[in-house]
Write a structure and sequence with these properties.
This protein has 616 residues and is mainly β. It has 7 helices and 37 strands. This is YD repeat-containing protein.
């Protein structure tokens, strides 16, 4: 039996196990809550024509206070719905920009465990470990001593990935290593979309971000997540036996509490139901399942893991419990925006449910404090209402029958009633619903995690949180990559917006595809590129997600269409690239890491009028 298995991939993720099972080490992550996780899409798959993802933004109100501007916008990301994807408090695919937050995926050890409480762990966390920030093959790290310490939990070999949303400005960054563990603050220089310095205070467990214009943003309202992982001695096609259980708690998000402008103007943000620094509202996600075999990779893509002497096959099931943070009000100058919420209907499981995905750890949450939905935003100026937004919801259809409703529950935004200056505007939203969405634990997902209609128990694509960066090695695994299904990936995606007043917009989509790979990727992964099917298999290569193919704007007296063409002389122009981190790298090898997206440098758009089904 192999004692340590090393797989060279883009992402390195590790899991610490109690000393009684110190030889078993597999990936551990703690994802952010369903609301905070929504911005990861925007960081990894930018919206805009050049990325094939249409910008869908509905302005609600901008709060003004001299040189301080706080926009409140409702946004939709149309790249597609992943099987494990949770709906936000405004519905599946939607994200509300109102202030902001900093969130993270905890990978391996908690990088900020010194602020959260170390919980008797040996490793200090990535920023305090003296190791190279490596995302692929690193000679400095690929040695037996390094992996022995990793297996024993003495080293946190991977940085957590941080994401931010500040008044609609979005990005991601890492903490860099070799900091002194006795210091009280960590700093990160953000280069874009605006030059900013992010400072984390380890004593107060809070962030302060200052931009080059002099605006100061404070993030003190914490969202805490607890992971609960069960380890099974798993016999394929037979029995399994639990042999270990590990739990960990970490702050996964910090929500904006205050803004101070260069002229000294201030905005304050309040949130619902805090008790001893944690929210009283609780939610959870579907179980994440991993299968690991020490002789063959099943469905997990890791850099290293260690097995105990007597166990060859391991299944890990992890549940994540979030103490959710919900915005209650924003106040600046003469403006106040109030946000009203309520518990989503049909989300509570029956008492008799047991097993994976049962969510039994939060059954006792009192009525009204499970996952919430945003019902209304009311903006007052000088105490008088000037804008009211009312949200109406239902639930997306499901194609599976499950005992636990959380596995099929996906909030659907049906309409938005927007009242401004006593003028009512009703907006409606239609989505593709041909098959019904699968259970969040379904195996019917393609290589990138999108729904593909192919249920295969032996081939599970791991969660994005575990397999954050798309590894080239997977693309050469013939027979293990999951097929892409254009008709299934569109399930649950927006198809029509009715803006009211006789104006509508419809969307049609195609699959993302690329013909070339950026030099940044091919130069860094020269040997892998020689082996991969990028150059020898399919051209163009179909990539995960959707790109817009056609939009039609309908007015009372005319229809205007736009057709999007991603080919020149019959050849796809898409290029696979890396979505970079937004912080200063200071010579560290971060530019060659990150998630992948497709960019189209020369898109042709044909526009004209549509009459009786004909385009002119």
């Amino acid at each position: 039996m192999k004692r340590v298995i090393i797989l060279s991939l883009l992402g390195l993720l590790f899991l610490n196990i109690p000393t009684s099972y110190a030889q078993l080490r597999v990936d551990r992550v703690i994802p952010p809550s369903f609301n905070a996780a929504a911005i990861i899409k925007y960081c990894d798959h930018p919206v805009g024509v050049r990325y094939g993802v249409p910008k869908i933004k509905i302005p609600i109100q901008t709060l003004l206070n001299d040189d301080l501007y706080i926009p409140i916008n409702l946004n939709y990301h149309a790249i597609g719905v992943k099987v494990e994807e949770e709906a936000t408090w405004t519905g599946l695919g939607w994200h509300l920009d109102a202030g902001g937050f900093i969130t993270r995926i905890v990978r391996g050890e908690n990088d900020l465990a010194l602020a959260d409480g170390k919980q008797n762990r040996k490793a200090l966390g990535y920023p305090f470990e003296h190791i190279k920030p490596c995302f692929d093959d690193c000679e400095e790290n690929e040695n037996s001593e390094f992996h022995t310490k990793v297996c024993e939990g003495q080293i946190d070999s991977d940085p957590d990935i941080f994401f931010f949303n500040i008044l609609g400005m979005k990005g991601k960054f890492l903490l860099t290593p070799d900091h002194d563990s006795t210091i009280t603050a960590l700093t990160v220089d953000i280069l874009h979309p605006r030059k900013m310095t992010a400072e984390f205070n380890l004593k107060s467990n809070s962030w302060k971000v200052t931009d080059h214009l002099g605006y100061q943003y404070f993030f003190k309202n914490r969202e805490v997540t607890q992971s609960l992982s069960t380890y099974l001695d798993y016999k394929f096609d037979s029995d399994s036996m639990s042999f270990d259980f590990v739990t960990q708690k970490a702050t996964t998000s910090w929500y904006m509490s205050r803004i101070i402008s260069p002229k000294g103007k201030e905005a304050k943000f309040k949130y619902y139901a805090y008790i001893d620094g944690e929210s009283k509202y609780l939610s959870n996600s579907a179980y994440h399942k991993m299968n690991i075999n020490d002789e063959d990779m099943w469905d997990v893509h890791y850099s290293s893991y260690c097995f105990p002497d007597s166990i060859e096959n391991v299944r890990v099931t992890s549940e994540y419990l979030h103490s959710d943070v919900y915005l209650k009000s924003i106040q600046t100058g003469e403006y106040v925006a109030n946000f009203s919420i309520s518990e989503q209907e049909g989300i509570r499981p029956k008492d008799s449910i047991s097993g994976a995905g049962s969510n039994h750890y939060i059954r006792s949450v009192e009525l009204g404090y499970r996952r919430q939905q945003l019902n209304q935003i009311q903006v007052l100026q000088g105490g008088n209402p000037i804008t009211t937004a009312n949200f109406k919801y239902s639930k997306f259809k499901s194609n599976s029958i499950v005992e636990n409703p959380i596995l099929n529950h996906r909030l659907k935004l049906d309409s938005l009633l927007l009242t401004k200056s006593d003028k009512l505007k009703k907006m409606g939203f239609d989505y593709v619903e041909n098959f019904g969405l699968p259970s969040k634990e379904s195996h019917a997902r393609d290589l990138w995690g999108y729904y593909n209609g192919e249920e295969d128990v032996n081939n599970v694509t791991p969660s994005d949180f575990f397999n954050y960066s798309q590894p080239e090695k997977l693309l050469q695994e013939e027979g293990k990559t999951k097929h892409y299904s254009l008709e299934h990936i569109q399930e649950g995606v927006i198809s029509k917006i009715d803006f009211g007043g006789g104006k509508t917009r419809t969307y049609k989509f195609d699959h993302q595809a690329f013909f070339t790979v950026s030099n940044e990727i091919s130069d860094y992964f020269t040997e892998k590129m020689k082996e991969s099917n990028f150059s020898s298999h399919i051209k163009p290569y179909v990539f995960g997600g959707l790109r817009v193919k056609e939009t039609v704007e309908s007015y009372p007296k005319e229809k205007i269409y736009k057709d999007y063409f991603y080919q020149i002389d019959g050849k796809e122009i898409g290029e696979l690239e890396i979505t970079h981190y937004n912080h200063a790298h200071d010579g560290l090898d971060h530019r060659s890491s990150g998630n992948h997206s497709v960019k189209y440098p020369q898109i042709k758009i044909k526009t004209g009028k549509l009459f009786n089904g004909h385009k002119f």
